[in-house]
Specification:
about 45% helix, alpha/beta, disordered C terminus, 10 helices, methylated-DNA-[protein]-cysteine S-methyltransferase activity, about 280 residues, single chain, Arc Repressor Mutant, subunit A
Length: about 280
C-alpha cells in the first residue's frame, strides 16, 4: 500500500511540474518582444541603436523650412514648419520599431549664413548643414530676365545649375517596399523644369499599371524638394497631391520655370480662393 501511495505521489508531482512549466513557457512567449537581435554564435543580445537626427530650420519665400539630417549629413526629412508635427509623426511610423532621436543643430543661423557667404563647403565645415546651405541657394536663385517676351536660351542652362544644387545632397529614405523605392529613385531623376505624371513614373518602374501605388509612394515621401514630388501631376496635367499645399507646389514650379497649363492654374486658383500668379522679372 505504501508503495502505491509513493508512486501516486511521484506521478502527481511530475504532472504538477509539467503543468507549471507549460504555463510559465506560455507566459514568456506572450511577453512583448523588445527590439533585439540574437547572435547565433554567442546568443548575446544586441540592441539596434536609435536613429539620431539633427534639426535645422531656414526661412524661405513660402514659409520656414525644417530639415532633419543624420550624422553623415543625409537628409531624412524636409518640409515646412507648419506641417512639421504631422511630418515627424509619419517619419517615426515609417521607421518603427526603430527609435528616432531629434537634436537641435549646434550651429546657429548666423554661423550658417557666414559659412554660406564664404562659400565654405569643404570637409572642415559642418557637413550636416550642407543641405540647409543648398536649400538657401535654391530659394535665392534668380533666373535672368526674358528677352523680347520670349523664352531665353539660357533658361535651360540655369535650370541645370539650379537642379544640381539639390541633386547633389544625399538623402536617407526609410524602409519600404521595392516598388516604393523604385518610384523614389525614378522621382529623383525628374529634372528641374520638367513635369511628369504618376503613370509616367510607373512606366519608369516597369510597372505601367501601378500609377496608384506610385501615388501612394509620393504621399510617403519624407524629403520634399530633394525628392521632387511637386513635379508630379495627374494624368490630365491637374495640379494635385502635394501635402504642404497646392499653392506651394505652384510657387515651386514657377520658381523652376516649369510650364504650367493655364487652365490648371485657374482651377487651383478657384479652389484656393487666391491668386497664385507671380510677377516675372
Amino acid at each position: 500500500m505504501s508503495v502505491i501511495l509513493s508512486l501516486c505521489s511521484d506521478v502527481m508531482a511530475t504532472v504538477l511540474c509539467s503543468l507549471f512549466s507549460l504555463h510559465y513557457c506560455k507566459r514568456v512567449c506572450q511577453m512583448p518582444t523588445p527590439l533585439l537581435r540574437f547572435s547565433n554564435a554567442t546568443a548575446s543580445v544586441v540592441r539596434v541603436p536609435p536613429l539620431r537626427v539633427y534639426r535645422y530650420t531656414t526661412p524661405t519665400p513660402i514659409g520656414e523650412c525644417v530639415v532633419l539630417v543624420d550624422e553623415e549629413g543625409a537628409v531624412c526629412l524636409c518640409n515646412w514648419t507648419d506641417c512639421e508635427e504631422d511630418a515627424v509623426c509619419r517619419l517615426r511610423r515609417a521607421y518603427q520599431p526603430r527609435e528616432i532621436l531629434i537634436d537641435e543643430a549646434a550651429a546657429t543661423a548666423k554661423e550658417e549664413e557666414e559659412e554660406e557667404e564664404d562659400g565654405d563647403d569643404s570637409e572642415t565645415s559642418d557637413a550636416r548643414a550642407y543641405a540647409v546651405r543648398q536649400l538657401r541657394r535654391y530659394f535665392s536663385y534668380s533666373f535672368p530676365p526674358m528677352k523680347g517676351g520670349g523664352r531665353d536660351t539660357s533658361v535651360s542652362f540655369c535650370q541645370q545649375k539650379l537642379h544640381a544644387l539639390l541633386d547633389g545632397v544625399p538623402i536617407r529614405c526609410p524602409p519600404s517596399t521595392s516598388l516604393t523605392q523604385a518610384a523614389w529613385a525614378a522621382l529623383r531623376e525628374v529634372r528641374l523644369g520638367e513635369i511628369t505624371t504618376y503613370g509616367a513614373l510607373a512606366k519608369r518602374c516597369q510597372r505601367p499599371s501601378a500609377s496608384r501605388a506610385v501615388g501612394r509612394a509620393m504621399r510617403e515621401n519624407h524629403v520634399c524638394l530633394f525628392l521632387p514630388c511637386h513635379r508630379v501631376v495627374g494624368a490630365s496635367r491637374a495640379l494635385t497631391g502635394f501635402g504642404p499645399g497646392l499653392w506651394r507646389k505652384v510657387w515651386l514650379l514657377r520658381h523652376e520655370q516649369a510650364a504650367i497649363p493655364a487652365r490648371q492654374l485657374q482651377r487651383v486658383e478657384s479652389v484656393q480662393g487666391t491668386s497664385l500668379k507671380r510677377e516675372r522679372a
